[in-house]
Structure prediction request, 522 residues.
Amino acid sequence: ITHFHRTWFNSDDAVLNMLADAMRRQGRLLPQHWINKNGDLLVPSGELLIAPLLRWFPNGFAVHAVAGVFAALLLSGSLAWLLRTLRMPTAVTLFLVTLAASGLSCANIFMVFTQTTYVWWPAGFFLGAALIVRQRACDRVMRRMEIAALCALVFIIGFANPSRVGLMMVLPLYLFDRALAKGDFRPERKSSWRARATRLVGFGDPASQGIAAAFVLALLVYAALARSGVTHASYNAADLHWAGVRGVWRHLATFRGWFGDYLGANPSPVEMSPSAFPGVHAFRWFIALGLTCVGIVEVARVRSQRDLQRRALTVALLGAFVPIFAIYALFDPLALDSGALRYFTVPMFILLVLSAFFLRDLMVVAERTTRVALCGGGVLLVLVSMQHYLPVADLGRATFWNVRASGPMQLAESLQTQHLQRGYATWLNAGATTVMSDSAVRVRPVVVSPAGVASFPYMVSTEWYIARPGETFLALTRQEASAAELELLRTKFGEPARIIDAAGYRILVYAYDIAARFDAWG
Prediction:
């Protein structure tokens, strides 16, 4: 997170830096003129840590790493707290926290620890579940404090995107609470169906009422901000429509990446060959297979499970998995590729907690053997996490810490060498280049197509595209700078003042701000 990720740092990661810069400049938690994607306000998120640091440090990779480290600590700490609340053995807790911190796969690390977007929902579930368990064992005064903390947690995380948080965190938390509560009473045969339904839904349960009230409040605040024009967002991924029979089969085919790509059974293209760490690849297969089997076994025996906490976690797993799977499989456009499996981050991490019960059972049967196995497995997990990032470094001792220069890194260096400070590029090269130059060069994202050039539609500030005096540039990759595209650019923007070919890019430099001639997007 702090060093080797430089090579794989991309513009999706850089959103935190860009939003933090807008927050600092305007002094607002929700900056004006910022357009969010899919309704996600990104509050809370890593930019809340980055923005204060910009007073003393440049807006570059170093401050972004602070947010990534915090995400890793947040997830690890929340998981550890839940496992200790469930009274898991120390060896089991340490092993599973190591597994979570080392990342289930390379894609999982990128989504959870470097973008930080997907860390809040599993961490929120862990914290909320721990509070629910604790409040049932507390006295009346402490119970009120635990429920107040639970309400604050649901509101703060739900505020960012109520529709997504409702499915990914609030629903599993609610089902977890109700599954625990169901063991506290036996159905009364003489009671009316209305009384039984009321008690089952949890109208009289403080935790369930608190979760519902906090979520509704977050939804109302979110809607009020959107209606008043304080926040602006696009909802392209939320525009769901029936995929058809062929589409459903296509989506199910991409779901095969659950086992290989997201649980880490398959080596990522960015990783070294398995021979670099003998046995690590086989161990990763074992971890992925084990987590999958835990989920299947626990779901199969959920009705006969006598351990209330274990059963409640299985119910939460189903609540986190089934609705998202239905949307993923039946509708477009979520299941574009296996990368969309990031929507299943919460059920994947719930599997870690369920596996703790399995490991605890093993310790009862063979305590010493299980402890030794967990210790050895922890060492292998550290090697697995190393394998996610070390391929970018030369394994020779003299150059171990040197990372391979990425396209944005090379482009940032070339632009600084040419004393260029302001310009435009396509999404993948814009934000990442800005961060890699420590914001010495500000590169704003644009859409370049046969129809023309337009400002990027989301995760941007509209202020970026207000034309200002001075020269600007348009950086294109070799593939983007086709003869037809260059002719279109000449027609639209005129002849560039100069053309620079460097680092695999064609950089067109204009004597004026080309934003004045951008097309309307869409």
Observations:
- The mean pLDDT is 83.
- The radius of gyration is 25 Å.
- Residues 61-85 form the longest helix (25 residues).
